Amino acid sequence: MTLNVGQRVRLAADLRLAGSVTPAGEPPEETGAFAASLALAAGIEGTVERVDEHHRQQSHEVREYLRLKSLLDDFGHQMPPVSRKQLEEQVGSLEEQWVAHQRRMLRVTVRVRLDNGFVLDDVPEEAFASA
User: Fewer Cβ atoms within 10 Å of its own Cβ: the N or the C terminal residue of the chain?
Assistant: First the structure.
């Protein structure tokens, strides 16, 4: 699902946030003065304020797949049968990494202002459903 700025969403699962808390206005060296946790129940609604797309880096295997696939597509018909078969096997052995990369190529995070006033930032879009 692709979320858009201004879209109404609801939390798809319960969330528990835990960590150190610094009161507003305190100097940075006081970071971690308090420990706290916050639980948010699934179903809380809010509005998407920002959508960020993060492109994942290509692994060596993915780059090699693209290089070999391009070579096969462009020159495979001119290759001797044994060389072409060997290249096809190499491409086939890397295809699983390519498919996995395509599935997670784009990571989308959002900033959502919940109706109760809380703001969740840098949260994967999968944590929300359309309201």
Answer: N
Place of tokens 């990369």: 101
Q: Which 3 state secondary structure label does DSSP give 15?
A: strand
For residues 95 and 114, give the distance between their C-alpha atoms in angstroms, rounded to a whole number. 41
pTM: 0.60
pLDDT at 64 over 80: yes
Reduce the DSSP state of residue 26 to 3 states and report it.
coil
Nearest to 120 by CA among 1, 64, 38: 38
The residues that bridge with 15 in the sheet, in sequence order, are: 40
- C-beta of residue 65 within 8 angstroms of C-beta of residue 87: no
Say if CB 108 and CB 125 are below 8 A apart: yes
